[in-house]
Specification:
This protein is mostly helical. It contains 13 helices and five strands.
Length: about 350
C-alpha cells in the first residue's frame, strides 16, 4: 500500500461521457495530483440507477464511456486506482451503517439534493434510493479513508455531510472526544480521517445556455469527445446581449467565463477590458478564438479516446476496471473490518478478491 496521503473522487455515469465542466472542476486537479497522492477515482454506476433504473444498458455503456474519458484525459491506472462502485460490496454495507447516523430531515435539506430534484423535474416521483444516494456518497468516500476529495462547488454540501458522518462515527464508536479538532480525529483513535474538499480551478462552469451549471442532462454541455465542428457550433450558439440598464455585456457573462477558463490569462483580461469599455465588439471573432482554444485542448483527448473505441481498446478498458477493483476491494474491506470492529460487529472475517 502507498504511504502517500489518499484522495477519492469520481463521476456518475448518467451520460456517455464527461464535459468541460468536469475537466476544469475536477479532472485537471486529478491529473496534477496523481504523483503527489494515492488516488482513487470512483465510477458511481450504482448511483446512476437513482434516475436511470429502467435503462441498465445505458448505464453500462456510460460507465465504459467514463473510463475511456479518464484514460483519454491522461489519468493513469498504473498510478491511480479506478474503482467501479458496483464491484465494491463494502460500500453498500457502509451505506446502511452510516444511514443510522444521519437524520432523514438533514439528508433532505442537502442543497445539492434539492437542486437535483428541481433541475431534473422529479417532483415527488423520485425513488427512495434518490435521497439514499447522498448517504451512499459518504460511503463512497469514507470506504477509502481519504484526506482530500477534489470536487466542484456543487458537491461541497455532500462533503460536509460526509465529514459529519465521520465525526459522528468516531465519537460514537471510537470514543473520540467531541471537542477534538477534525484534523486530529484519526490520531485520537478515530476509524476515519475527516476528509476536506478541494475545489478545482473553476468551481462552477456555466453551461452554453448561460444560465444553468454545465450539465449532461440539461443539454448545455460541451463534451470532451465532441468533434471540432460540434464544439465550435455549441460555442457559436452562446447568446451575447448587453444589459438593458448599462448597455454593456455583464462581466459575469458565460462567454467571458469561458475566456477565463480556456484562453491565456493575459488574453482573457484583454477581452474583459474590451467588453467593460463598451463599443462595437465582433462577438463571432471572440467565439472563433475560444473555439480554437477549446479544440486545441481537446484534440489529444479525442485522439486517445478514438483508440479505445476499437476491440483492443474495449478490452483494455475492461482490464483497467478489473485491475482497479482488485486493489479497491483490498482497501475497502480493510475499512469495513475496522468499522465493524468499532461497532462490535466483528463476528467473522471475510475475503473478497
Amino acid at each position: 500500500m502507498s504511504t502517500k496521503p489518499r484522495i477519492l473522487t469520481g463521476d456518475t455515469p448518467t451520460s456517455t461521457g464527461l464535459h468541460l465542466g468536469h475537466f476544469v472542476g475536477s479532472l485537471e486537479n486529478r491529473l496534477r495530483l496523481q504523483d503527489q497522492y494515492d488516488c482513487y477515482f470512483l465510477i458511481a454506476n450504482v448511483h446512476a440507477f437513482t434516475t436511470l433504473a429502467e435503462k441498465p444498458a445505458d448505464i453500462r455503456a456510460n460507465t465504459l464511456g467514463i473510463v475511456k474519458d479518464w484514460l483519454a484525459v491522461g489519468l493513469d491506472p498504473d498510478r491511480s486506482t479506478f474503482v467501479l462502485q458496483s464491484e465494491i460490496p463494502a460500500i453498500a454495507e457502509l451505506t446502511f451503517l452510516f444511514a443510522m447516523l444521519i437524520p432523514f430531515n438533514k439528508v433532505m435539506r442537502n442543497p445539492t439534493l434539492k437542486t437535483e430534484i428541481d433541475s431534473k423535474g422529479l417532483g415527488d416521483s423520485y425513488p427512495f434510493g434518490f435521497p439514499m444516494y447522498a448517504v451512499g456518497q459518504c460511503a463512497d468516500i469514507l470506504a477509502f479513508r481519504p484526506e482530500l476529495v477534489p470536487v466542484g462547488e456543487d458537491q461541497e454540501a455532500h462533503i460536509e455531510m460526509c465529514r459529519d458522518v465521520a465525526l459522528k462515527f468516531n465519537q460514537v464508536y471510537c470514543g473520540v472526544n467531541n471537542r477534538t479538532p477534525p484534523e486530529r480525529h484519526h490520531l485520537e483513535g478515530g476509524t476515519f480521517p475527516i476528509p476536506a474538499a478541494k475545489l478545482g480551478r473553476v468551481a462552477r462552469l456555466t453551461g452554453t445556455d448561460g444560465i444553468q451549471k454545465m450539465s449532461k442532462s440539461l443539454g448545455n454541455a460541451i463534451f470532451l469527445y465532441d468533434d471540432e465542428k460540434t464544439v465550435q457550433k455549441k460555442i457559436n450558439k452562446i447568446t451575447v446581449l448587453p444589459d438593458a440598464a448599462t448597455g454593456l455585456v455583464p462581466q459575469s457573462h458565460v462567454l467571458l467565463q469561458y475566456c477565463d477558463a480556456f484562453l491565456p490569462e493575459a488574453r482573457a483580461k484583454e477581452i474583459r477590458a474590451m467588453y467593460a469599455a463598451g463599443g462595437e465588439i465582433m462577438h463571432g471573432h471572440i467565439k472563433a478564438e475560444l473555439g480554437a482554444a477549446v479544440n486545441t485542448l481537446l484534440n489529444p483527448m479525442r485522439q486517445r479516446r478514438a483508440t479505445l473505441e476499437t476491440p483492443e481498446g474495449e478490452a483494455r478498458v475492461l482490464e483497467v476496471i478489473r485491475q482497479g477493483v482488485r486493489k479497491a476491494n483490498s482497501v475497502a474491506e480493510e475499512t469495513l473490518a475496522l468499522a465493524k470492529k468499532a461497532m462490535k460487529l466483528d463476528f467473522v472475517s471475510r475475503s473478497i478478491h
